[in-house]
Amino acid sequence: MGMTDWNVGKLLEISGSYWHACTLHAGVKLDLFSRIETGDNTAEDIAGGLGYDVRGVATLLDALAAMGLIVKAKTRYSNTETSKSLLVKGSPQYIGYMIMHHHHLVEPWSHLDQAVNTGKPVREGGALDEEERESFLMGMFNMAMGIAPRLAEEIDLDKRQRLLDLGGGPGTYAIHFCLANPHLKATVADLKTTRPFAEKTISQFDLSDRIDFTPCNYLKDDVKGSYDVAWLSHILHSEGPDEGLMIIKKAVSVLEQGGIMMIHDFILNDTSDGPLFPAIFSLNMLINTDKGRSYTEAQLKGMMIETGLVNIKRLAFEGPNESGILTGELGG
């Protein structure tokens, strides 16, 4: 949106848009969409099942209906087809975990001015609690499930034998790269707290014999093994430039000659003022991390060159929220 497009109405719409977000967050947190789907579809039914105030529940349901997320007929509520697909737990397309991840970020985002003033993160409490960890990891799974199947078909790994999914969380990309390439084996390397989520997800796709998990804090530990392809998806933005370079070096250290590295992230243009989502996401990193940020394409290419990668190029792929992929090769 250009500067000349702004007016009072649009500015106030942006300023108050968190009202809509918080309404959606509450609906997902209370799992109202699933309750409607199972037949608890009056405000009294739902409030009784939750032990909540009828007025409060009815007001929230009416607001969700006004947003077009549910349908109201007299006193009864039903899901739209979109809500059935995306907001009812148990649906393969459920995105509630990512919505809850956004919910957990509301409080720190309300202190953005403090983060800008000090240059330091404002998130309190240190490590994620169990609910926040589940929302984050399964939210990443939700989002990756919308990208990975298509991406795995587009990227040619036909001659590759062993893939490293560094910081791979639940292993979604490793799973789909292996599904698309029956000869490929993979290792998901991530924090030990991630292991239960990863092994459960890998098992669901019947790939436990081809994908293993190794505990790895890539900031502190050496990466182990030998691979001919390394996949680094959405991990560099959490770290500063020095740490980002170190992570790439560690991944390169286990690449075989002729192996390829793929970096998937929210990539800024080289003037850092767009695209919009990577620019806004860089604020999220300012709020929540010590040194994290979105990187420009030139910055990422510079790190790759410094670690000895050649033939560096950007793929035509553009993911949701304007993510992109850079590839490089070790050796000639």
How do you describe this structure in short?
GO terms for molecular function: O-methyltransferase activity; protein dimerization activity. This protein has helices spanning 8-15, 17-29, 32-37, 43-50, 54-66, 81-86, 96-109, 112-118, 130-145, 148-154, 172-180, 195-204, 241-253, 276-288, 297-306; strands at residues 70-73, 76-79, 162-166, 185-190, 211-215, 227-233, 255-268, 295-296, 309-314, 323-330.
List keywords for this structure.
332 residues; alpha/beta; Arc Repressor Mutant, subunit A; Rossmann fold; 2 domains; eight-stranded mixed beta sheet; two-stranded antiparallel sheet; SAM-dependent methyltransferase; protein dimerization activity
Task: Please specify the SSE layout and strand pairing.
Blueprint: H1 8-15, H2 17-29, H3 32-37, H4 43-50, H5 54-66, E1 70-73, E2 76-79, H6 81-86, H7 96-109, H8 112-118, H9 130-145, H10 148-154, E3 162-166, H11 172-180, E4 185-190, H12 195-204, E5 211-215, E6 227-233, H13 241-253, E7 255-268, H14 276-288, E8 295-296, H15 297-306, E9 309-314, E10 323-330
